[in-house]
Specification:
The protein is an alpha/beta fold. The chain has helices at residues 9-17, 29-41, 52-57, 60-68, 86-94, and strands at 2-7, 22-25, 45-51, 73-77. The longest helix is centred in the middle third of the chain and has 13 residues, at 29-41. The relative contact order is 0.16.
């Protein structure tokens, strides 16, 4: 399983430097939606990382898909995570509460 990151050039840069290979730059709303859909079709991606403010720019229907997605698990960094904490997302993804 791989990690994919979608966002502005500045947002994805740190992830690239950390060794994440699947980074997709998206400056406009249309490009953001295209790149997210591209990642959702990639069976190798287990985690999709988005900026919290980018999650709010996504159309409601796609945002609902992202919030309910188990594979890939979608993590919004620096903003609202669709009502689920990181702990709840990991528990839903792997099926075990790692904090216990």
């Amino acid at each position: 399983m791989e990690i994919a990151v979608v966002g502005t050039g500045e947002f994805i840069l740190g992830f690239r430097l950390a060794g994440v290979r699947k980074t997709y730059a998206a400056e406009t709303d249309e490009h953001l939606v295209e790149q997210i859909n591209r990642v959702l079709q990639d069976k190798d991606v287990g985690i999709l990382v988005l900026k919290g403010s980018d999650m709010e720019r996504v159309p409601l229907r796609l945002r609902t898909v992202l919030e309910n997605s188990v594979k890939p698990t979608v993590i919004a960094v620096g903003g609202d995570e669709g009502g689920l904490s990181m702990r709840e997302r990991i528990k839903r993804s792997v099926g075990v509460d790692l904090w216990k």
